[in-house]
Amino acid sequence: MATDARTSASPDAPAGTEKSAHRPAARQLSFIAAARLLPSFCILASHLSFEKVFRDRTVQETYYRLFNPAGFNAVSFFIVLSGFILTWISTERPPDRAFRARRLLRILPVHFLTWAVVVCAFAATSPATGLFATLTLFQGWFPDHGVYWAANAPAWTLSTELVLYAVFPAAHRFLTRRGDRFRFGLLTGLIAVVVLLPLVLQLLPDGATFANAAFTERGHAVRVSEWKYWLVYVFPLTRVLEALCGMVICLLVLRGRWTRNVWLPTVLLVLAVAVEELWAPVLLDLTALTIVPVVLLIGALAAREIARWNTPGARENRVITNISAYGKYTFGIYMYQWALILVCRRYLHPWGNSVAAGVLFVLAFYALSVAVSMISYRFVETPVNRFMKPAISAYARR
């Protein structure tokens, strides 16, 4: 992973021993904030692809085969990005005793609200064990899809977020005291585990299997091993490895040790998705084939923006800046879209559209999810944060 942005620091010098070449201060990563919208759309489009959005069978199959694997890959993008962003904001403000409380304040208001909405309207679709596990965000620890997909199904990723919040302060201290050579080695090892795990599991007995609309190989529906799918895609200790990749990337980017070339990872990502569609078993579709391009792309986007900040006279891209303002709503989009899909399933049935009407429906559905997220951000998340932050700040000063 060569770099285009050089630093005068020794490659093996720990970041904590000197000031990094590039400091984030209070600046927002506009490229990454804008880029978040595309994977958030892919996740939503993936979930909608399980329904018969289009009347024409060929169009529906094309839509499904295009967006179904993209949903898996988009989740991986966000998990890696979580580790990256936490490290980015911690460069100027290292984690203190209130770090975990602040992070929980970011996710719990929306989680509790979406959980309550789904349970009140659709509780009969989930077992009591699953409802409780989802409420407490322990659902990812149960190798049972009836549990980790209970209530608001996308919330299973928050189990991984909790693990990240738990280990982040210690991991951040450890990584900032290590040199770049160690970080590159660690990153290689983490990626190797993510890639090799499903390959090794392919050799083991499946045990109990289950079917889901998301599971296809070369366009054909297949059954998947319950425990293998859980271990690769849901288990928090497995998925947190991707977040740790994000942490390492950020530290390398801050020291100017990352490439700014976004075209290479973009091409690799497209090729990986093509391989998923044409050949790969389900277990490889989940994370293994796309982890390398995702890691390269996130780092390259940040490195390119830092380089722009350090280039005299460089102008901001107004389009990117305007789009990036919506990046903060992607968590809400992710959390609310499932409830909206359930409403469509139960009450509206807006399926069987023409090509034009179906495309407009998917776009309108995404716009509605953005609008709901914006309303939630304004009238739920912001007021709760304002109310709780004084207590959290007081706790941090103790």
Core attributes:
mainly alpha, two-stranded antiparallel ribbon, 398 residues, 16 helices
Fold blueprint:
Layout: H1 30-35, H2 37-48, H3 57-90, H4 99-122, H5 128-135, H6 145-148, H7 157-176, H8 180-201, E1 209-217, E2 220-225, H9 226-234, H10 236-254, H11 263-278, H12 282-286, H13 291-309, H14 318-324, H15 330-348, H16 355-397
Antiparallel strand pairs: 1-2
Describe the 3D structure.
It is a single chain. This protein is mainly alpha-helical. It has 16 helices and two strands. It has helices at residues 30-35, 37-48, 57-90, 99-122, 128-135, 145-148, 157-176, 180-201, 226-234, 236-254, 263-278, 282-286, 291-309, 318-324, 330-348, 355-397; strands spanning 209-217, 220-225. Helix 3 (57-90) packs across helix 13 (291-309), helix 7 crosses helix 10 and helix 8 packs antiparallel against helix 10 (236-254). The protein is globular, with a radius of gyration of 21 Å. The relative contact order is 0.17. Residues 1-11 and 15-22 have low confidence and may be disordered.
